[in-house]
Design brief:
CATH superfamily: Endonuclease/exonuclease/phosphatase
Distance between the termini: 6 Å
Structural class: alpha+beta
Low-confidence stretches: none
Shape: globular
CATH architecture: 4-Layer Sandwich
Order of helices and strands: EHHEHEEEEEHEHEHEEEEE
Helix content: 25-40%
Largest sheet: 6 strands, mixed
Number of helices: 6
Radius of gyration: 17 Å
CATH class: Alpha Beta
CATH topology: Deoxyribonuclease I, Chain A
């Protein structure tokens, strides 16, 4: 089976905007459509609480006519048009979509950050992990989120294997970003966030990319939009992951980035696994 995960940074902009960046996003959508994956996990949709309008839905269906979808958006009292996740899945799959609350600090559970798909043989979880924020103002809440999320995935794993993916907003090790020495207290590379990710893995999960590629350097999934040369210079971070239950890690076939061309920000990631 083949799975894709991508932080799209506004589904509406990607589908309907006339900007140059939106065209780059549509190029990526065309690439993803050609992959013929069973499930495509999208983060940071930024859709309103009521979901897509008719124009957006029609545009999405042009790319993915063979897919159904599940979605959840940020809802009051959380910020409007913020965060949000969506799962596109092949129509022939037997799927029950769940929208869990994990007891995270308010209003994180209302920000549309997580969907879990219940399939006959495994769970598929997609997540958009909260950022620690400018000045690390949300670091304490982020640490609680990490603890609650790890417990949630562990509980799923007691029932059947789990595949989890998304934007985890953390570079786990120094090899996962281009300039660790200058980012020691940057959001996404604090000791607290890295330790939280380690504890998540220690509950029974494998970072599929490192399982396949070992300590290969210089492979990232995100480049800052505000720095025009970040992607040209490959000054990036690896903050997007596919995790799998330890007991199915030997079934991994591929775990890699999908080329997003000139588009900066996140690039999609792919997992192929023999299930």
């Amino acid at each position: 089976m083949k799975f894709i995960s991508w932080n799209i940074d506004s589904l509406n902009a990607a589908l309907t905007s006339a900007s140059a960046r939106a065209q780059l996003s549509r190029n990526v959508l065309e690439t993803l459509a050609g992959q013929d994956a069973q499930i495509i996990a999208i983060q940071e949709t930024k859709l309103p609480a009521k979901g897509m309008n008719k124009k957006q839905l029609a545009a999405l269906q042009e790319y993915f006519p063979d897919y159904d979808y599940a979605w959840v958006s940020s809802r009051e009292p959380a910020r409007k048009g913020y965060a949000g996740t969506m799962a596109l899945y092949k129509k022939d799959l037997q799927i029950k979509a769940e929208y869990p609350s994990i007891g995270a600090p308010e209003p994180m559970d209302l920000e549309g950050r997580m969907i879990t798909l219940d399939l006959p043989e495994f769970y598929f979880n997609l997540v958009y992990t909260p950022n620690a924020g400018d000045g690390l103002k949300r670091l304490g809440e982020r640490q609680v989120w990490d603890e609650k999320y790890a417990r949630y995935l562990h509980d799923l794993d007691q029932v059947k294997p789990v595949i989890s993916c998304g934007d985890y907003n953390v570079a786990h090790k120094e090899i996962d970003l281009a300039h660790p020495e200058s980012n020691r207290r940057s959001p996404g590379f604090t000791d607290e966030e890295r330790e939280g990710f380690t504890r998540l893995l220690d509950t029974g999960f494998t970072d599929s990319f490192r399982h396949v590629h070992g300590d290969v350097p210089g492979v990232y999934s995100w480049w800052a939009q505000r720095v025009k040369t970040s992607k040209i210079n490959n000054s990036g971070w690896r903050i997007d992951y596919f995790l799998v239950s330890d007991r199915i890690k030997d079934k991994i076939i591929r775990s890699e980035m999908i080329d997003s061309g000139d588009r900066q920000d996140h690039t999609p990631i792919l997992l192929e696994i023999d299930l």
